[in-house]
């Protein structure tokens, strides 16, 4: 009894607690703010959904709503880096669709989801505090999509709000907007329809004090001054979003958690490493005879010797502390060399390019090929043409969200492990490869003619890598396209600009001093503060991607980076033009061919054949691809001119039908049954014609279910009447039924001899019309 009473009291307390929770966490606890972005209103809210998460927020624009949750573990991860995972998934239900796979569930992850996840990651990662090694997951959930407003920018803002409203240590918030340009006018968060007419697709994420943390852009070769203006306009509007999220955080009185351990290198160990190894590290970084491999080997030799001495001096030190002490001093020496002595480890000036060499037409069987070498970064690019049927077809969810149904230009970036002298897994595409390939594709796509008759695939395989392989892929891809004879409107080049900076001691989020580096090495990217990739033509910019590792960049520095990258881009184009200055006037002799074949409606069924038999036979025997453009026109794609010649001969044989031209409307002919089917019989009027279906309904006045009911057999000859061809599908119209009436008395026969040479004047009688 005592146990039952105790259990009853427990249930009572639980009931009271649950009731209290439901009242406290109801809609009355929801916070909502509206940000005025000109003609658009951005709504940010929290407190209604996913309240168990550390942070949750919903951002709405129009009728598109995106919810993002942020959860971070309270125990450090064993890996000594920021273990951040961003998952952006396109929900079919949010777009009012059902997935097309056999399970009707969301399966796998699409390229667009991966690219959007990377976009969000790059925007929020720089603002996590140094040494925060706690597993953190940001999940983006599309609640509703109206097909007008793109959810990717909303997801960035919702991720910012979720982190800012949580207790997770994060030096945000940030705001993000998309900027479009139509007829020189800047549009903030343009609709999907407006983006179809826009020459710019710029996403910019900004932190407090007009700091830029991320830029992602593709453009129709717009001028540098227009691009810079768009960045400034975008940053101005991101400030409004930042202020709104800060206000929400103040209203909710957010208190950030204090991590159990934020790792910091012991100062005494760092000082000991400075005394032991700084001069030797400096000697390696100022020895300009080193290349990537020999420099790494020399530094590793100093590392091993220093770490052994450290372990003897500090026997109780953690292994990671020993390693990080050396890394701290090595990074310090490397950066000070650039900041104070204006020296780079390969001897170049800060704005100098590495040695560049270009070569085209490497392999004759390829439709187009090029090798682009910049320092120790080497990329081999090849171009392949195929039919328009081979274009990429977007899944229904991506189509519903972005409106893109297919694309006939693609660039695939491959980074095998041997490119960096490593052993690794081959096959498949990781997120990095997908992101780098998408950037190079953005750089080249505006130059591809809209009406090009082929699907184009560019493969960029990195043979050697020592920094900026994605921009080398854009350069090599441009050369390969010109070698293939693709009439691109202008050559495209790309370059990466790096940054070495020092923070203001009084305001750590502000930069006190900095140096911009043109055409960065791999080590300059790894130990630097920014990877600013810019691509374009001599006229303007086609793509830009800025990855920032510090809490933000002032606008002045961004403008300088664009200017410095533009100067380098033009210098690279001058070198590329020495290899090939213009696209080839014609494609290679062994390249693919496309021709249109006009088939009259009356001949269409004969050309296609029963069940498409003739088309399948053509494609199987010659390797061509045939697609119907309209009622009378078929497009024939052949991989080689020889295949086209072979296909043309077969098409001529199929369409050769002199005898049918001499058939008389309303005449009666002797037909031979060649096949019995459930729905009728297949007959021929002369030996070399395609078989024609004579339906059960045209065999007899009586209703029959099978031709055997009339005693018909294969090889039997029957009398049929010819009524020309159907004007809609081109099928020959024959009837045996009408001959059962007394009116049909005259018969025309076609012997095998007559099928070779038939003259209407030799006919003995004329058919009678019904």
UniProtKB/TrEMBL annotation:
The Gene Ontology terms for molecular function here are: 3'-5'-RNA exonuclease activity; polyribonucleotide nucleotidyltransferase activity; RNA binding
Gene3D superfamilies for the chain: GHMP Kinase, N-terminal domain, K Homology domain, type 1, Nucleic acid-binding proteins
Gene Ontology BP terms: mitochondrial mRNA catabolic process; mitochondrial RNA 3'-end processing; mRNA processing
Keywords attached to this Swiss-Prot or TrEMBL record, sorted alphabetically, are: Acetylation, Cytoplasm, Exonuclease, Hydrolase, Membrane, Mitochondrion, mRNA processing, Nuclease, Nucleotidyltransferase, Phosphoprotein, RNA-binding, Transferase, Transit peptide, Transport
* Domain S1 motif: start-end pairs: 666-737
Q: Which domain of life is it from?
A: Eukaryota
InterPro entries linked to this entry: ExoRNase_PH_dom1, ExoRNase_PH_dom2, ExoRNase_PH_dom2_sf, KH_dom, KH_dom_type_1, KH_dom_type_1_sf, NA-bd_OB-fold, PNPase
UniProt lists compositionally biased (Polar residues) regions at 752-770
Its membrane topology is listed as: Peripheral membrane protein
- Tell whether RNA-binding is among the UniProt keywords: yes
Q: Which residues does the annotated region (Disordered) include?
A: 750-770
Concerning its family, UniProt says: Belongs to the polyribonucleotide nucleotidyltransferase family.
Quaternary assembly: Homotrimer; in free form. Homooligomer. Component of the mitochondrial degradosome (mtEXO) complex which is a heteropentamer containing 2 copies of SUPV3L1 and 3 copies of PNPT1. As part of the mitochondrial degradosome complex, interacts with GRSF1 in an RNA-dependent manner; the interaction enhances the activity of the complex. Interacts with TCL1A; the interaction has no effect on PNPT1 exonuclease activity.
Instruction: List the NCBIfam families.
Output: polynuc_phos, PRK11824.1
Q: Which PANTHER family match?
A: POLYRIBONUCLEOTIDE NUCLEOTIDYLTRANSFERASE, POLYRIBONUCLEOTIDE NUCLEOTIDYLTRANSFERASE 1, MITOCHONDRIAL
Q: What is this protein called?
A: Polyribonucleotide nucleotidyltransferase 1, mitochondrial
